[in-house]
């Protein structure tokens, strides 16, 4: 027989406090009945002796210390999963918000998951095509990788996320592919944008969305990425599918974590965030990867907005430690109407070296991306010089670099929202740009590739 607690010790924001409680576990779920009729759910977030602190998912409005009956379920937050989730939209705790039926399944899955054994991990190698030149050519996404996008408020990261969801596909593979999209703290107009973008492109049938809107409880916001990753693990490791998880915005998630931490009166760390922010983010990011003996994979693209465009802020800083590279969006390129405004110099993909080249993308890919990085870094130097002496006083070769910089941004980085380029098309655009230079400047390219692809 379950024990019922009829009196709360304290109510503090989204938190409730009970005393005289025993035999409960961290993350255990609770059922709350208010005035004998209304039902809400809560999750245990702290245990101090016989005192329990819990977060209420639907908020504490209408709850008093005397009008509630609390029962502990003995289980953590669990969701039902089956292949029927594809094409569906759920809230952050797995409840349908698309007017569809609840998912019926014999098994329930703990959203907190389990850490992936490092020994069981398989090294990622296969290339995943997004159709975006700046990503596919210069910061190549490898199946099973964690590759975040560092953006800023006002930039086009939502459009980029939608384009990645619409266009992503496996290269040279007939394996099953699907996408899990997690939105945390997103506004209604952004939700409608994502929804229409998926439906109009026909991609919605292979996408399962977990949406936490900006006016939804922050407790749900903390559960949203875990719920989405649990669905991804089910599809990848039980159904044998290759899954791309796109999560936006990690900054909203971290701020919800900070708000809850403050309500729990925990000692703050950098910029008020809890000291366990690093380990908390790692419990999300490290759920991506490939497992030996399993056919499926989970590739993760978390998107975060850097407060005040500060890449040293704790959220991007800690994310960079855990993940395998980053794609950085530039406000300067955005102001030039370049889409997507990918700043390639601070961007990198640490796993791309083992997933490109002959048998994966194209034999010249490695040297082309190296040459593009070298030329564009020189462009930045020449632009700085031109601001001092003026472009007319530059040397002839420096003027070529200036022209290359303009052409590279307009023709290579810049592409339409509905334009999908194959890796071969992106590499061919790069070779067309190389024609601006005398061959002596192309010191990263072997002569055999110049003869084969250069077409001088």
Key traits:
proton-transporting ATPase activity, rotational mechanism, Rossmann fold, 12 helices, nine-stranded mixed beta sheet, single chain, alpha/beta, hydrogen ion transport, ion transport, 456 residues
How is this structure best summarized?
This protein is an alpha/beta fold.
Protein architecture, described:
It is a single chain. This protein has 456 residues and is of the alpha/beta class. It has three domains: 4-75, Elongation Factor Tu (Ef-tu), domain 3; 79-354, Rossmann fold, CATH 3.40.50; 364-453, no CATH class. 33% of the residues lie in helices and 23% in strands. The protein has twelve helices and 20 strands. The chain has helices at 133-138, 157-167, 188-201, 218-237, 250-263, 277-285, 314-322, 331-335, 365-389, 396-413, 423-434, 447-454, and strands spanning 4-5, 10-12, 15-18, 28-34, 38-48, 51-56, 68-76, 78-80, 89-91, 108-110, 128-129, 149-151, 169-170, 177-186, 207-213, 242-248, 289-290, 297-305, 325-329, 342-349. Strands 9, 12, 14, 15, 16, 17, 18, 19 and 20 form a nine-stranded mixed beta sheet that branches. It has a seven-stranded antiparallel beta sheet with strand order 1-7-4-5-6-3-2, with no helix packed on it. Strands 8-10 form a two-stranded antiparallel ribbon. A hairpin with a 3-residue loop joins strand 4 and strand 5 (38-48). Helix 4 (218-237) crosses helix 5, helix 6 packs across helix 7 (314-322) and helix 9 (365-389) packs across helix 10 (396-413). It is elongated. It starts with a strand and ends with a helix. The model has no long low-confidence stretch (mean pLDDT 90). Produces ATP from ADP in the presence of a proton gradient across the membrane. The V-type beta chain is a regulatory subunit. One of its GO terms (molecular function) is proton-transporting ATPase activity, rotational mechanism. Keywords: ATP synthesis, Hydrogen ion transport, Hydrolase, Ion transport, Transport.
């Amino acid at each position: 027989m379950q024990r019922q607690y009829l009196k709360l010790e304290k109510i503090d924001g989204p938190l409730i406090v009970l005393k005289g409680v025993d035999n409960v576990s961290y993350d255990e779920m609770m059922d709350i009945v208010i005035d004998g009729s209304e039902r809400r759910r809560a999750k245990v977030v702290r245990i101090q002796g016989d005192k329990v602190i819990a977060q209420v998912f639907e908020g504490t409005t209408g709850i008093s210390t005397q009008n509630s009956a609390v029962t502990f379920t003995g289980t953590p937050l669990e969701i039902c999963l089956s292949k029927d989730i594809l094409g569906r939209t759920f809230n952050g705790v797995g409840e349908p918000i698309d007017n569809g039926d609840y998912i019926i399944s014999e098994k329930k899955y703990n959203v907190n998951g389990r850490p992936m054994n490092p020994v069981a991990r398989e090294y990622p190698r296969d290339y995943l095509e997004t159709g975006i030149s700046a990503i596919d050519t210069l910061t190549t996404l490898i199946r099973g990788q964690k590759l975040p996008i560092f953006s800023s408020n006002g930039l086009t990261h939502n459009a980029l996320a939608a384009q990645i969801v619409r266009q992503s596909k496996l290269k040279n593979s007939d394996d099953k592919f699907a996408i899990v999209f997690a939105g945390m703290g997103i506004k209604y107009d952004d939700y409608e944008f994502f929804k229409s973008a998926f439906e109009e492109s026909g991609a919605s049938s292979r996408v399962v969305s977990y949406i936490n809107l900006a006016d939804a409880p922050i407790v749900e916001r903390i559960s949203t990425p875990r719920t989405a990753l649990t669905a991804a693990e089910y599809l990848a490791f039980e159904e044998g599918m290759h899954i791309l998880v796109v999560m936006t915005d990690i900054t909203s998630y971290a701020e919800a974590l900070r708000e809850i931490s403050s309500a729990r009166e925990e000692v703050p760390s950098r910029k008020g965030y809890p000291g366990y922010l690093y380990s908390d983010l790692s419990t999300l990011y490290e759920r991506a990867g490939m497992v030996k003996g399993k056919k499926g994979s989970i590739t993760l693209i978390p998107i975060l907005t850097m407060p005040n465009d500060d890449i040293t802020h704790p959220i991007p800083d800690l994310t960079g430690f855990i993940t395998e590279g980053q794609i950085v969006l530039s406000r300067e390129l955005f102001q030039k109407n370049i889409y997507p405004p990918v700043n390639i110099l601070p961007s990198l993909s640490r796993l791309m070296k083992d997933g490109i080249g002959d048998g994966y993308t194209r034999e010249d890919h490695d040297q082309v991306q190296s040459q593009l990085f070298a030329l564009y870094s020189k462009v930045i130097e020449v632009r700085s010089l031109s601001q001092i002496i003026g472009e007319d006083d530059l040397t002839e070769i420096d003027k070529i670099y200036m022209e290359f910089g303009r052409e590279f941004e307009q023709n290579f980085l810049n592409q339409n929202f509905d334009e999908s380029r194959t890796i071969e098309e992106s590499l061919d655009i790069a070779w067309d740009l190389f024609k601006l230079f005398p061959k002596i400047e192309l010191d990263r390219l072997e002569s055999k590739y110049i003869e084969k692809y250069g077409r001088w």
